Amino acid sequence: MKPFYITTPIYYINARPHIGHAYTTMVADAIARSRRLLGDDVFFLTGTDEHGQKVERAAQKAGHQATKVFADEVAASFQQMCGDLQISNNDFIRTTEPRHHRAAQELWKRVADRGDIYKGDYEGWYCTVDEIFVPETQLADGKCPTCGSKVERLKEESYYFRLSKYQQPLLDFYAANPTFVQPDFRFNEVRTFVEAGLQDLSISRTSFQWGIPVPGDPKHVMYVWFDALTNYLTALGFGSGDPHAESRIGRFWPGVTHLIGKEILRQHALYWPAFLMAAGLKPPQRVIAHGWWLMGGAKMSKSVGNVARYQDYVDVFGLDALRYFVMREMPLGADANFSDDGVLTRFNADLANDLGNLVSRTTTMIHRYSGGMVPDSPVAAREPLDLELERQLARAIAGVIRNFETFQITVALQDTWVLIRSVNQYIVKREPWSLAKRPDAKALLDATLYHSADALRVTAALIDPVMPQAAARIRAMLGIPQESWQGLKAGTLAAGTRLGPTEPLFPRIEKTVEELRGMSSTEPSEPVEPATPTQSTAPVSAAPPAPTTDSRITIDDFMKVELRVAKVLEAEAVPKSKKLLKLKVDTGQDQRTIVAGIAEAYQPEQLIGRTIVIVANLQPAKLMGIESNGMVLAGSIDGGKPMLVGFDQDIPPGARVR
Ligand code: MSP
Questions:
Q1: Which residue has the CA at smallest separation from atom 13 of ligand 1?
Q2: Average predicted confidence (pLDDT) for the chain
Q3: Cα separation of 377 and 496, whole Å?
Q4: Each residue of 324-365: pLDDT tens digit?
Q5: Looking at residue 283, what DSSP letter applies?
Q6: For the whole model, what pTM was predicted?
Q7: Any idea of the CA torsion for 437, 440, 442, 447, to the nearest 10 degrees?
Q8: What one-character-per-residue DSSP string does 499-544 give?
Q9: Ligand 1 neighbourhood includes 78 CB (under 6 angstroms)
Q10: For residue 292, which atom of ligand 1 is closest to its CA?
Q11: Using an 8 Å Cβ cutoff, are 165 and 265 in contact?
Q12: Which residue has a Cα nearest atom 15 of ligand 1?
């Protein structure tokens, strides 16, 4: 079995976990699960980073006498998060554990023995929120350039690490390992930073005590990043002195994948390899830096106060829906907006509609037309449509595996959903409900049932790393065991398999976001403006009867108009028309053509990629011979040029506008 070691950052315990921490942990979990499905020997590590001034102060603020008591309490909430999110970690490390103290001191000693640590005086600026030293030239308005917090002036005796010595070795290492940092553009940032020259790094503090004592000089505690980064080795037995425990280093190091948020890339791609080189150890194989979840335009973080609790979303949408949303919505490396609307839209469109429909159609048909048993479909009976479906399955399997191997989970999910939609179309084209009425069509009906069930089996396997619960529930409905990705292929479902009971997988949520916002939140989460008045504020039954001359409409009338967010994919002028443009738009559910009277105000190329609002349920109409399926919303001052309706934040196509 191939060893595969994956880590998350270890989280600071000055605050309880939120969606940001949950995200990294869930992505690492999906990667770990995918590697297990591929047959690897996986070691998956997460944990908590418990030292430093920030934690000491948070404990004092929380009224705790002993920082350790506070640490135990908050660390437990991260352990609880792993349980709540069904994280399959093999170990959970806390930097306050004795095994970690030993490891960090061992690393320090090795670096010191090789002459790369010296004593000096530090005078400069320090950001306690990020636990980093900030060179004077990088201060932004006297504040930390990373998080915008106030920095503190420090003047104390300090041990230094000879980081400057590692400029060239780091650049050589980067050159020899072109996939060390992913995505690529982040690697360029690191390279540019190193090329500009490196200064030695202060790696000890004397002004507080909550840390790991420096070997031989306990007046100093280690700089929290020197301590924290070592956790990745601690969990492999480093510094334990036990040969059996340490044998894991040989197995899993340096072939490690560090999954992190982009704000801690420098520490992982620069400090960490340099510390390791200085200790005579190999740098890690790979650092993957993902983007940030934003809320209200800013990074979701405790210090900003705009955090969303993962528990609220698990309660309302279910764990797998949350896991699906975050992994579908944020492509590797990019930032993404976290919004209730986004979660609800994806839930109804992708999970209830696409996947939920496939599951219920397939299992119901087999119960209804085949006594709950997967029928046989002899190879000879297969028609072009069946063979095409098999090819699509093969394409999806290859695509998903390839994309998981390169950590492109979003793309893997897109591949899976292309498949799910194709299978739904396959069923619609075959019309099994009509075939069932024709005794002469039995072979075709059986083929349809067989291939749909077989495709559902493959779908369950492909979503398994991201949605383990849903995958297990589908398998239970199909009556099949979990399948590995090794040798996963179309056509292997055994005829005669007896289905289990059918249950709705993701029942559609008919409530509005505002109604769902009853989702209790005990921490202040982002105050999200309700988009419009809704049933929750104006229940239809309680509305006073309108006078007959009143032209106002009821909320029900309004809700008949399906306003949706769409994205312009293509735009071109309509020949011989001054006013019309022909747009191809992505509605989140389909791609369609809309003819819009906005040519006097917009050039076609200005519109591509733009987010607009459309009336999605308008009957088609022909304009200048082109069928238009919907209408674009724009405002205009009497007789003036139209101005497209837009949003002040990113919002995905398909989101309902109310
Ligand atoms: N303790 C350090 C890491 C030490 S690793 C040796 C630390 N801790 S942290 O609690 O601040 O967690 C940071 C990590 O949490 C990010 O790198 C990211 O993985 C995750 N996230 C926290 N907020 C996030 C968002 N708003 N969006 C996405 N991920 C976020 O830094």
A1: 11
A2: 91
A3: 11
A4: 999 999 998 999 999 999 999 999 999 999 999 999 999 999
A5: P
A6: 0.80
A7: -110
A8: P-----SS----S-HHHHTTS--SS----PPPSS--TTTS-GGGSP
A9: no
A10: 27
A11: no
A12: 21
